[in-house]
Amino acid sequence: MSTSSPGSGWEGDTEQPFDERKPLLGKTTDGQITYTDSTVSVQADYPVKSSNPPHTPDLKVYKARWWIVFIFFIFGATQGAIWNTWGPISDSCKVAFGWTDGTIALLNNWAPIAYVTTMPFFSYMMSVKGLRWSMLLATFMIALGTGLRCITSVPTPATVLINIGQLLNGAASIAALAAPPIISATWFPPNQRTTATAICAISAYVGASTSYLVSPALVSQPADMGNSTANHSSFYNGTNHTEVVAEQRREIMRMMYIECGWCVAVFLAILLYFPDKPPSPPSRSASTGRLNVKSGLKDLFHNRNFLLVWMAYGVSTGVMGGWIGVLDIVLSTHGISQVEAGMIGFYGNIAGCVSALAFGIFADVFSGHMKLLILVLVSIASGTFTWFTLMLWHNTIPLTKAEIYVSFIASFLTLNACIPMFYELVMETTYPVAEAISAGVMTWMNNVFALIFLLIPLIPHIGVGWMNWAALGGFVFTIPLMVFFKEKYRRLQVDTGQATS
Questions:
Q1: In whole angstroms, what is the distance from residue 484 CA to residue 425 CA?
Q2: Are 423 and 442 in contact (CB under 8 A)?
Q3: How sure is the predictor about 500, in pLDDT bands with cuts at 50, 70 and 90?
Q4: Rounded to an integer, what distance in angstroms lies between the CA atom of residue 200 and that of residue 179?
Q5: 15 φ, ψ to 5°?
Q6: Minimal CA–CA distance to 16: which of 273, 284, 280?
Q7: Alpha carbon 61 to chain centroid distance?
């Protein structure tokens, strides 16, 4: 029966009532129930009659879930792009503001610093206050941070304001990184959860990839700098130096104006429509209660399987996350310009995002094999990144541009494909701990390792040779941890009626 009511906020949405006594599309060969949308349009708070057994909630899937994923993707991409603004134009920033490699590393480090210190607050907020207020706060902080950067281009105050902007954007990254499994669990049926998590999880990576194109396109590389890695604040002399510095500052300011306008638009979009949750849950597990914060945290740190996957995810993605933020610095010592480094980073990240989405869909179709997939992918990534590292280590393997591209892209294609599966494994392993708590603690470890990685360049004269080896170590360290990890799909068992009391 189709009904609608003005002002409900859900008109035109499609939802599916689930009758647990018969499958929606019939049972698959393994007896698993499949979920689809129906063409029945209902009002948000309309009491729908159900033939389900007593105490079983009506389960409905709304078309609005795809809008939620879309607008979250835009938010996550925006946060990632703002975070990665400065690495791709590091040469220009050295001329315009007199920055050093340490300055640029610190700008990238504000994200993990903010994450590590404010994660408890944001996780609590997402768990108790819901997604809407968390998203509004996060997008407001990003918009405010980009606005502060637009005040001046005078080096000293500009550097201070840019650092504050990076700190605010870093705090907002908690929503970008921790919310994907919350959105998938709240809005999507079991056979679409990993796909939805993948779409949301890759958003920040897409944004970071975009910045490799956008930042160098808006801010040109100083023509006379070549590929030198020295501090270029005193490279030019006389009138030519003054003109180059002024032009670099103008281009950087124009870029920051454009980014600020975009961030305000994203905030307004979230303000207009981003509900906490749908009127009815999409799955049995979404309708069940979760442990409170204190009990959830206690359960996490007494869960051996969680600790293993927590460390595996945190080390591999955390170190690599810090490394990608200084890619231009890593490659510049080998005669690769900021524009070329930007293209390498762009193609690698985009390949990783495509593979993450593909493997997310694959994991939804062939559920129950995430551990094996992760082990295979991380092993391949270890091999390809060893190739990349040896090319940059005193030319142990002869360095060619084509091989740099291939080895980098292959490494990110395989590592990023693991990310949505890491998320979903954690949610399955820790159920019934609230997704906001599990995801917050999980991504906190990622940022701890990124923070450590990005603090090391602040040590005087340490150089950049160690960076590739540290990133490679993150890949290799993951393998034994996942070997000892035991797969348990607690949440999926609840959704398929296989849970035991």
A1: 14
A2: yes
A3: low
A4: 8
A5: -135, 155
A6: 280
A7: 25
CB 92 within 8 A of CB 222: yes
- Binned at pLDDT 50, 70 and 90, residue 265 comes out as very high
CB-based contact 80:176 (threshold 8 Å)? yes
DSSP one-letter code for 53: P
Q: What are phi and psi of 12, to 5 degrees?
A: 85, -10
Distance CA 342, CA 328 (A): 7
**Whole-number Å distance between alpha carbons of 92 and 256:** 14
**What secondary structure letter does DSSP report for 6?**
T
Alpha helices in 88-202 (DSSP H): 90-97, 101-128, 131-149, 155-178, 180-187, 193-201
* Confidence label for 240 from pLDDT (cuts 50, 70 and 90): confident
Asked if residue 337 lies in contact with residue 468, where contact means CB atoms within 8 angstroms, the answer is: no
Query: Using an 8 Å Cβ cutoff, are 283 and 59 in contact?
Result: yes
Instruction: Decide: 44 and 93 in contact? Cβ < 8 Å.
Output: no
- How far is the C-alpha of 438 from the C-alpha of 427, rounded, in Å? 7
- Between the ranges 137-141, 280-284, 332-336, where is the mean pLDDT highest? 137-141
Rounded CA gap, 356 and 420, in Å?
7
With pLDDT > 90 as the criterion, what percentage of the chain qualifies?
A: 49
pLDDT (tens digit per residue) in 308-326? 999 999 999 999 888 887 8
Q: Judge whether residue 343 has pLDDT over 50.
A: yes
Distance CA 309, CA 429 (A): 9
Q: For the whole model, what pTM was predicted?
A: 0.78
Model confidence band, residue 129 (pLDDT cutoffs 50, 70, 90): confident
pLDDT in tens, 459-498: 888 888 899 999 999 999 999 999 999 988 888 888 887 7
Residue with tokens 């060969």: 29
HEC readout, 173-215: HHHHHHCHHHHHHHHCCHHHHHHHHHHHHCHHHHHHHHHHHHH
DSSP class of residue 433? B
- Using an 8 Å Cβ cutoff, are 472 and 385 in contact? yes
Cβ proximity of 266 and 207 under 8 Å: no
Give 131-170 pLDDT, tens digit per residue.
999 999 999 999 999 999 999 999 999 999 999 999 999 9
- Which residue has 């429509």 as its token pair? 273
Structure tokens at 125: 């907020």
Asked whether the beta carbons of 87 and 326 are under 8 A apart, the reply is: yes
Q: How many CB atoms lie under 10 A from the CB of residue 294? A: 9
Say whether pLDDT at 46 is over 80: no
**Cα distance between the two ends of the chain:** 36
DSSP state of 255: H
What single string gives the DSSP state of each residue in 408-421? HHHHHHHHHHHHHH
CB burial string 236-271: b at 16+ within 10 A, e below = beeeeeeebbebbbebbbebbeebbebbbebbeebe
